[in-house]
Amino acid sequence: MSSWILGLTGGIGAGKSAATNYFQSLNIDIVDADIVAREVVMPGTQGLNSIVAHFGDDILSADGTLDRTKLRSIIFDNKEHKAWLNALLHPIIRAQILTQLAQATSPYCILCAPLLFENGLERYCQKTLLIDVPLDVQIARTCNRDNVPQEQVKNIIAAQMSREDKCQKADYIVDNNRPLVDVHAELDHLHKKFLDASKAI
Known about the structure:
It comes from Pseudoalteromonas obscura. It is found in: Cytoplasm. Pfam families: CoaE. By secondary structure, this protein is an alpha/beta fold. It folds into two domains: 1-28 and 109-201, Rossmann fold, CATH 3.40.50.300; 38-105, Rossmann fold. Helix content is 55%, strand content 11%. The mean pLDDT is 94.
C-alpha cells in the first residue's frame, strides 16, 4: 500500500486526465473518482439496484446500464432527488476509493477527483495538486471536447468551487495553459519531490 497520497484536482477542461496519464507513464498508481463513480452503478451493483428501485426501470438504457443523461435531467431541477442520490452514492464511492487507495503499490499514489475539496477527499491526502487554466480556456476546451453549448459548461463551472478558492487550498498549482513540454517538465520536478516525500514516511 502507498501510504503517501497526492490529491489531484482541477475544474472541467483543465486537463486532469492529461496530467494523470503522465504520472501513470511514470508508473504511479491512479485512483480516479470519476471512474469509481461509474463502477459503483454498473449492472448488478447495489448502487444501480437502489437507483432503479427509486426511479423505476425507465432510468435504464436498452442494454441495462444506467442512462446518465436521463438521470442528470431528473436530478438537475429536483433538489430532493439530488440529495437522495448523493446520500446513496457518496458513501459507496468513498468506500471504493479507500479500498483502491489501500491496494495501490507504487511509491506514492494519486487520488484524482474533480470535487476533491468539495467532497472533503483532501483529508486522505498528504498534499494536493491543482491543474489550472483560465476560465475562458476551460469553457473553450470543454465545448470543443464534449460538443456542448457554452451555457451548459458555465453552469457546470458555477456548481463547482471557484478557481480562486481551489488555488488557495491547493499545495501545488500547475499552469496547464502552455506547451505540453513545459507542463511535463514541471510534473517531472513534482514527481521527484513526491518520491522523496514518500520515502520520508
